[in-house]
Amino acid sequence: MTPVTRQEVLRLYRKIFRIAKKWESASGQTEETIKEKEYIKNEAKTLFRKNKNVTDPQLIKQCIEECEARIEIGLHYSIPYPRPIHLPPMGLAPKQGRMLRHQEKLRKISKPIYLKSHDEVS
């Protein structure tokens, strides 16, 4: 990892924790706010630890883009959770029958960047 990339990753990590510290839930309820703050922190820790040994520059760039996209979407919609509702209708089709491989390929291709790591962690 180049020093510039390392700085960018650390900047994103700090940014996430600053967001979590200031986070207010859309409902305004204290318990909901605490729950969402914990989710943000745990999700960040889990994903950053999972990807700490990634050395491929393209994959690092993709992870950074996913992180930035999730931050922007979370701040815009005031929800910390990924939003799978924008996937194409067949993107989340049930896995069954002869079309299983085709359905899995469609699902992988149609998944937006902000959901790439969501299924792996959840």
How does this model look, in words?
With 122 residues, this protein is an all-alpha fold. The chain has five helices and no strands.
Short description:
The protein has 122 residues and is mainly α. The protein has helices at 3-22, 30-50, 57-77, 100-110, 118-121.
Task: Explain the layout of strands and helices.
Layout: H1 3-22, H2 30-50, H3 57-77, H4 100-110, H5 118-121
Helix pairs in contact: 1-2, 1-3
Note the main attributes of this structure:
122 residues; mainly alpha; 5 helices; flat
The percent range for helix content is 55-70%
Radius of gyration: 16 Å
Q: What is the H-and-E element order?
A: HHHHH
Global structural class: mainly alpha
**How many runs of DSSP E, i.e. beta strands?**
0
Note the beta-strand portion.
under 5%
Low-confidence stretches: none
Largest sheet: none
